[in-house]
Amino acid sequence: MPARLNALHAVVATVAGWFAVVVVATATAIGLVSRLLAPDDAPYFLLTAVVADHPVVSLLFWVLCLLAYALGFRALCRGLERWRHGVDSTPPRGPRTQRLERLTTWIFARWWHGAVALAVAWSPWILLSWPGQPNPDFARTIGEFLLQRSDFVGGVIAPFEAYPTSHYLLPDSERIWSNHHNFFLMLYYGGISKLSILLFDSLMPGIFLISTLSLLLTLVAFGRAFSILGRLVPSWKVRAVVVGIVAGSPLIGLWGMSHSKNHLFAALLVWWLALMAQFVHAPAPVGRRWWVETALVSTGLAVSVLFGWILLVAQALVMLGLRRGRFVPLVVMAVPALLVHGTVTTAGALGLLIPSDPIETKGVQLQQLSLILREHPDALSADDREALGRIFDLEAMAAAYDEDVSDPVKSSGPFSRKTASYRYKTVQPEDWEAFTGIWLRAGAEHPDTFVDALVAKSYRYLDPLDEGTHFYPPWSGDYERVVGEHPVAPVEINSLTRPALRDAAYACFKVEGCRPLLSHSLRTVAVVLLCAAAIVVRRRFAWLWAMPFALQVGIVAMSPLAAGGRYALGFTYGLAVVIALMAIDDRQPERSPVENSQR
């Protein structure tokens, strides 16, 4: 039986790994079809139509991409096989390599060494862009905390009108707190903003502080990850590559100053992955410091993004298969996650905050339905049109289709571009009961358009040549916003250099040699293929590292944006750490007598 299970495991691992290769190759081929074959005057990209017009060339693109990825993936698998029992580097010989080795050793020796080194490496971007500039989501988030429902007069936009939140979800009280952009994060941003107004009669000091704390978190997270991995990765060359990838990624430093939420998740993910590596690879059992540190970082992950608690619970369940301390992750990961999620759920049930709107999880379905209605106005039966018409204005829904973002269909996003698509003021919970059936019947009737919308929504995250949507922090030079009586944007500090650097970054992306420095999708593909190769060669902890990123691939497909830069930050931040994880000795550490006695 063990032999059969071992053989089955090998088959599953091989199929899973190569399936990832096929998916990435297909996404890259779709990108080539879109850029090279789709008509320039088309209002949006329809894959099936373009392939039907150019079947031979489209097939050739796919075959060439598949061949290129297959050859590269086989080489990657061979390399990870050689790395299975750790990577040792020969001692440096020349003076330059000796200095590099000493510098790398110093960076990995203490957490603050790594933090200082990255601060120096990113100093040009920090000095030219600090403190960043809040985006509309931040303004609405602090508006929830600072304002009451009755105060929205004189052109001030209520958060629940701009998101929107279905009005049946609104509590009867004046409180407008919600979980749309994470309840605890709203308390954090809003609390600092309120204190800033009380002390300085201005939001700007609070904005400066939030930006600085976010950047410090990024520096500390990487510094701590380096100090943990430095004890596990013996090769100074691998450590040098890891530092070089992070230090040479200006987007990490720039996003670290933003006022969104995804950069907080990405920084904590780096720290969390290193702590997991310490747990499974360290020769001795972890101590109380690890328990406390991991519980705190896990709590931060659960607070930072809405799916954070799901990731933590899933990872804790995966780690039940470990030999060592299989129930420990339940305590330091699942418990904090469930406490955070339970608190938010209870507060919503008690009417203390507005829960997340169910429409936010239906981005892909909405894009598919809106494109079907746009391409085939008579696609739905009379009954389905009547049922869906209670949720959406069907003509407005079809007109609102945008392949880059699903917000217009949801009638959310910037208030100035708000559409009449979603009937958020009158929709009721029971109106959604027929939605899934309508969606499935429309897809069965028009499978080509169904696929077109799905592809347009998702392929760009895995196309390494794609620019993405908003790959740079949203620091538009002409953005203006006021919350109550207090300006949020523009931020006067670096008001000239910040947009100039942003324009330079967009110009850089047009140059092929410069693009790899800024591409989120390139790093996403690299992480996916590294994890897939580790699974194929059956590294012991391959599934452990792959699961958090596999979950993120699924999450980004449901996000409002197609290839939104901030949704890919987990991959951009995590690439260097994944490389370090692959260079650790793959053998299970020996159990101590205490551990043996506990079995």
TrEMBL record:
The family database entries (InterPro entries) matched by this protein are listed as:
DUF6020
Q: Which residues cross the membrane?
A: 7-36, 56-76, 103-127, 207-226, 238-257, 264-284, 296-320, 327-354, 543-561, 567-584
Q: Which UniProt keywords apply?
A: Membrane, Transmembrane, Transmembrane helix
* A UniProt-annotated Pfam family: DUF6020
Q: Does the keyword Transmembrane apply?
A: yes
Q: What protein is this chain from? A: Uncharacterized protein
Organism of origin: Nocardioides malaquae
Provide the taxonomic classification: Bacteria, Bacillati, Actinomycetota, Actinomycetes, Propionibacteriales
